[in-house]
Amino acid sequence: MKTVMKMCLAESGLSYPCHRLTVGRRSSPAQTREQSEEQSTDVHMVSDSDGDDFEDATEFGVDDGEVFGMASSALRKSPMMPENAENEGDALLQFTAEFSSRYGDCHPVFFIGSLEAAFQEAFYVKARDRKLLAIYLHHDESVLTNVFCSQMLCAESIVSYLSQNFITWAWDLTKDANRARFLTMCNRHFGSVVAQTIRTQKTDQFPLFLIIMGKRSSNEVLNVIQGNTTVDELMMRLMAAMEIFSAQQQEDIKDEDEREARENVKREQDEAYRLSLEADRAKREAHEREMAEQFRLEQIRKEQEEEREAIRLSLEQALPPEPKEENAEPVSKLRIRTPSGEFLERRFLASNKLQIVFDFVASKGFPWDEFKLLSTFPRRDVTQLDPNKSLLEVKLFPQETLFLEAKE
């Protein structure tokens, strides 16, 4: 008849909380008893090839690996993370895929990217959008890893709480090169004290869960959670970290709102000042344009006046001398009323051409292309007459009163 041995872990002599177990093969019960008596720190679980002495542990409704936290690296076909990975994002992609393969799809969403990128995502955003950073440090050689990942890290309550409040980044410290790489990152971002704390952790104390809070001047490690914990304790420590973070976040939000309010006031003042400067500049430029236009027009006016004056002088110098009242030739006396009411008087020979009268009027500042010369009885526009005809021919003899009128 087969005998089944049933006893609790305490009765078996296993030390708490951790004990290293190995599995071996024995050839006889006597040899097994000998080995059991000689052990001081290691307990060997043995079974013969016939399976007569011990029943498989699955007969008790539990899995051997889950009972003892064993995850033999020999059973794993691929590592969690490649050694000496050049790109941290690629390493995290493999980590996530392997984690899902081992423990299922219900697990924290691991941030894919460098640790610096995770900092940016968690800390360097608006205060309302900031989160805590959780760094999961995996180690395949730890007896706690399998239970921690499957029982704690993949618990729905933990997964939900992490996704809502944390950015979760992971790294595998199983390989020495990856361990050294993380310690370098840790020393750079958190300082030598934190790096030394992680460096001195024993393998059986892994996995580790680091809770990081971003501050103005540095990143603070709020908590280092070791693998020998429970779901309730893990949740309690996550919530305690969130309580500290929330208090700091409210202060940061208040400071940020006040700073934004000050910056808004400054921006409004700067904008008002800019608009004022633009208005002043536009006014100044308009004034400068106006002055430039006035100067241009004044120059044109001066040039026109100079040109007219030159023409006037030229016409004045070209006029024949005024005949005396008593002259052998017939003389015509013309009296011309200007628009201002003044009169221009001059004597002309009756044989003088009408053009000479036009030149005379122009020499006084009334060019005939701007003014017309009218007679009263009969009323006619003298400037429309043939300028080559004599005064006698156009009947401006012996005397005539004319008046000047500006052309429209």
Low-confidence stretches: 1-8, 27-76
Q: Which class do the helix and strand fractions yield?
A: alpha/beta
What would the principal axes of the Cα set say about the shape?
Answer: rod-shaped
Distance between the termini: 141 Å
Radius of gyration using CA atoms only? 56 Å
- What is the tally of helical segments? 11
Report the average pLDDT across residues.
82
Query: Portion of residues in helices?
Result: 40-55%
Read across the widest sheet, the strand sequence of neighbours is 8-7-11-9-10
Strand runs, count: 11
Query: What portion of residues belong to β-strands?
Result: 15-25%
Series of secondary-structure elements, N-terminal to C-terminal: HEHEHHHEHHEHHEEHEEHEEE
Largest sheet: 5 strands, mixed
Short description:
With 408 residues, the chain is α/β, with parallel strands linked by helices.
Provide an overview of this structure.
- The N and C termini lie far apart (141 Å).
- Strand 5 (208-214) and strand 6 (219-226) form a beta hairpin.
- Strands 8-7-11-9-10 form a 5-stranded mixed sheet, with helices on one face. Strands 4-3-5-6 form a 4-stranded mixed sheet, with helices on both faces.
- The relative contact order is 0.06.
- The chain has 11 helices and 11 strands.
- Helix 8 runs antiparallel to helix 9 and helix 10 (231-318) packs across helix 11.
- The protein is α/β, with parallel strands linked by helices and 408 residues long.
